[in-house]
Specification:
Elements lengths: L8 E10 L3 E4 H5 L6 H8 L3 E4 L6 H16 L8 E5 L10 H8 L7 E4 L5 H14 L5 E8 L10 H4 L5 E10 L4 E8 L7 E2 L19 E2 L1 H22 L9 E4 L4 H10 L11 H4 L6 H11 L8 E8 L3 E8 L1
Parallel strand pairs: 4-5, 4-6, 11-12
Antiparallel strand pairs: 1-7, 2-3, 6-7, 8-13, 9-10, 12-13
Helix pairs in contact: 3-4, 7-8
The structure holds coenzyme A (COA).
Amino acid sequence: MSGDTGSVYSRIAGTGGYLPERIMTNAELESMVETSDEWITSRTGITQRHIAAEDEFTLDLAEKASRVAIANAGIDASDIDLIVVATTTPDRVFPSTACLLQSKLDVHGCPAFDVQAVCTGFVYALGVADKFVKTGAAKCALVVGAETFSRIIDWTDRNTCVLFGDGAGAVVITASEEPGIYSTHLHADGDYAELLHVPSGVSNNLAAVKDGRAYVEMAGSEVFKMAVKTLGRIADETLEANGMVRDDVDWLVPHQANLRIIAATAKKLRLPMEKVILTVAEQGNTSAASIPLALHAGVSDGRIKRGETLIIEGFGGGFTWGSALIEY
Ligand code: COA
């Protein structure tokens, strides 16, 4: 295992999460598009998702999740010296959601920025923040995954609208001599951009989609196959990098896109499903928020205990993919 005595690790001091009040069930979707609860449940494991209110934005979700993480970490917001927010659905083109969040939390002066790696966003954000802490550039970082993905969904497209939901998750990581985050592994291959994307943006704002709005488009089965293959491979990479074997892992905390993708990854790790933190049934795919929300669920209900070893892993548009090996 890496990490000599005296090394600086970043350690998860506290977790937080927030889900909007409004729940959209599969039954409600049946009244919107040609689908069925049976189809959605059997293909994805999703039974409901949370949807932000009209006057509720990514920043609001991020702030609520952050306040819970700050309280659980037992720190004061003024201790925070780095804010990294992973989001695909920022409130504004600029300033970044991280800067807006910084102001809401009455924190001033420390670096604050967003990262964009879609569903792998939280793993990227954690990887960046971990490196700040390991190099001594930060001692107490707030890392957030927050999304109002419902705003980039075409609610008439059954291929995508059944899959996603809104939410935010956050962690506070602090410098520690004890592990800690052992390693993070970040990857991308932009050749796959067209398989999962929103085909217009700020610079290229042509009428790429109907009525000129920007919605998620996805080649579902291609994404599915790549996700299963890639997530299996990255689990091995993560263990090998730390000289660990499958039996050393207590928990898998995966990105919650689809129960079948998660089950395939767990099988590859030879982990029984009882050792996998699942929120996909109640929350759907909340993109960058899904991993910190799952982590928060596992920690708050007492399943994940201090000293236990977790793998977090995600896959998303880009394609991007990544993982971290963490002793909680
Ligand atoms: N309700 C009913 N039918 C639907 C549907 C829905 N909500 N969405 C798609 N279908 C139909 C399609 O139109 C297609 O019909 P056709 O065969 O007549 O053309 C058929 O179902 C596709 O079936 P199948 O190929 O068996 O679906 P699948 O097992 O691949 O499941 C997904 C579809 C989208 C659930 C699956 O591919 C998936 O999860 N992909 C990954 C998505 C993902 O995780 N994206 C985010 C990554 S971060």
